[in-house]
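Reproducibility note. Readers wishing to regenerate the assembly model reported in the main text can use the exact inputs given here. Chain order matters: entities are listed in the order in which they were concatenated for prediction.
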Amino acid sequence: MILGRRPLLLSLGCAALVGCKRKREPITAEVWDEEPAIARAEAIGALAPPWPSPSRGQLDNGLITFWLHEPDSASMRIRLLVPTSAGGNAVPGEGVAVVAEHARFDWQRRVQKLGIAVAIEHGPNRFELVATGSDERLAATLGALRTTLATQTPTGIEGARERIGDQIPALGNLEAAASAALRRLIGTDDVVHADKLRGLSRAELHGHWQTLADPQRAVLVVHSGTPAESAKAELRKLAEAWRGAEKRGAGTTLVDQATARLGRRAVPKSTGTRLLAQPPTPMIIAAGGKGAPTLVLARTIALENARERAIARLAQRVAQEELDASLVISGNVAVFMVSANLGRSAVDKDVQRTVDELAAIARARQPRQRQFQAVQLWLGARVVESSLAGEDWTRLFATAIDLADADTAIAGALANDAKHQLDVGPDELEAWTRKWIDPRQGEPGWAWAAAGLDAAASKKIEKLVPLA
Amino acid sequence: MILGRRARLLGPAVVVLALGGPAHGHAPPSEPVAPVEPKPTDTPTPAVTPSEDPPPPAGPVLVDVVLPCGVRVMIAQDETLPVAAVVLAVETGTEDDPNDAPGLVHALGYHLLQGNREYAPSGIARAVHGNGGVTSLAIGPAQVRYESLVPASMMAEMVAAEASRLRAPTVSETLWKDTLRNARRDRARPWGVPAPLRASAHQAEGLAHDGHVVTDAIEALSERAVGSQLAERFTYDRATLVVVAPESPEVALVGVIAAFADLPPTPRRARDRSATPQRGSVPRTIPLQGHGGTFVWALPADAPGQAWADVVCGALNRLRRGPAEPSRVRVRCAIDDDPRRGVMIVKATGSDDPQALVRERLQRVRDDEAGSLAKERTAVAERLRQQTETPLPLARHLARAGQPGPAVDAPPVRAAPELLGSAALVVQGAMPTRYEHLLDIGAATLAIEPSPSKSPKPAPASPPS
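Running the prediction on these inputs yields the following structure tokens for the assembly.
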């Protein structure tokens, strides 16, 4: 039956109001706290790819590889995950964009005639290069990747800068505000500024290439109908040709876990402030862009294990039903963000209302059924979206890396994530949301920024909160 | 990827046949269709070897049966991800609109989103979205499809929903107004050639009008009229349910049979839209302002025929200019894709005699069977394989299978490539006789610029000479 109980109860409530003449009905909270059906929960929890345990390897050059073998698959995907800020060697957004574009372009031109498509995708704290095509071209595509990465001073990298420069999109208010809040929280953002891009010298670009194109920091995921053993020779050649930069800095140690390479381990220093409460968070007024004035509230969250990551995701999905809330998880750190449009006349009230709404969600006890619906929607949408995008196992595997505590747990990470989300009780979720996403009374550590405001609106906000 | 297993399917399939009994079969199409027999023509016989009985292609298999209630069911297995694609394709479309109510089928198609006794208005869509799935509606000239991609945990629910969709839809004045509001927002898709040209190529007058309009006549329909039109046009005996899911087809089929078990036995009525290709030495002509020199072929109403059209079109596009042709001539081919009423469009420019130019090019394609046509066959088969790797595109392609459906004595287990058309490309060495008209200029319709003295309005197509 598709009709929910809420409309039915609401209509019964309305009928009761009409039937009697009392002006005010006693307010009773509608709580459906019954457990979801076990079979249904099990079916939802099984919404994870049926992949067998991948072959994990570490090549001589330090590159970690995961080989997902699907017998009879006629297609293959090769995904190279390149962290952008791990290892204490942060590369600016402009440098990351140029390096990624050069790698894509160079790899693509070498496999163009083979019918292979190479694309850049972005993950938390990393970029990913993905080659898709016929499994018959696997060896040739790996060979082309080897040639692209073998050089330490790529000749065409300035061409990549030109191409990026031609394609910089106009910044919207949402991006401007989010970027300002992120810079405050973690010190970096992904926005490419035309002037900074132009200012990058060739030597700097080569330096960024050597920092990022490092096999000791990258992870390779392959999904293929060919078993890993059959590609050993090609992988050996890759290890021999792609050595990475010789100078990695003093004290650099080889990280032998993909989860550690790709995920943030150190939680950024907290801002120590709350929103519209003590200690107050100064609001950043960012330069305006396109669209309506936008407010972004953000914070970092420390997530110690897979269960906490599952709770964080569940909390975000519940909040998203009422607010535009997002969550990006990278290792032990997540960035939670809420955005809202601001009106031009009562901007101060809009700011207060957004904070109040978030606080109300954080302090509410979510009924079990509502949690279940949120989990069902999230897990279902994850596999459906993946199917629509071409059933790319490597993309889901990259997501699984973000959810796992160690490499041995990656293959089962999506299933465990589903299990944890279904296991979370209302009390546990409420305790977590009160701590992490209540902007007034929860754990301090917030940042906020608004973009697209005029002078009058900025003055109104200044009366409400200090400006940064 | 389909992971069907013939051996695992044979047992349950026999059970299904036993359950179906005499009503399992299907009646002949409601409108008789002339057999496609090659007739003598003035054009040279294509230099291809007819291959009427190709060996059964190896590869993935699926269940293809007609249930007692007349609905055709196709189930394929895909274990790559825990998702299920469910497509209900009804063999009716905008070309079936009554003359006095263009746009009727389009509006009725939308009205089937308004629920029935079991589902609230938009209830099926809400259920799909609530589970993280996606759903859409596609209304074409001869097929209306309700497509959903849902998590595998929701497959049974989705099959039940599609087994309910056509049953006693809720009709009320308010809902009908809501339906028409939605229908107005859905504009007709852009086609490569005007509707009169497509209508002429298919010899189907119903294709000549805009089937996406909402007219006063439709707005004025009473509840009873809407209900009776729905009951007449959207029935399970002209529908196909396609399921692609991780579940084994035999298990899924049990659920599907149960979902339709309470419908009364009805002979299948799905109409075969395949038109008899016209024959002759020259194309039939139709005056059409601004489209002179455009040749159009009606595509067969099945997936293999459409795959062969792709092959011919690709080969034409790859053909180099002949030694005697001036450098300015161009021949470009494109496909206006549709499951039942697609057309192949060839535009010839830069030539004083487009007919001779196209005839010569087609002849060269025929003569080079082992060369350009063979290369193109491989490329199209590979493209088809890539396109049908995931559940929803595979289900859509299967819904293109020729109608009216499998014969009474046909085995329930069929090779997927046979239905998709890739088998015809890979296994058969030459173009099947029934598709040879795609290489025959006499089977085309040619748009010509109307003479200045005549009205620019399209005139009825002239008979083939």
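We highlight two features of this model. The longest helix of chain A spans residues 368-388. Residues 1-23 of chain A have pLDDT under 50 and may be disordered.
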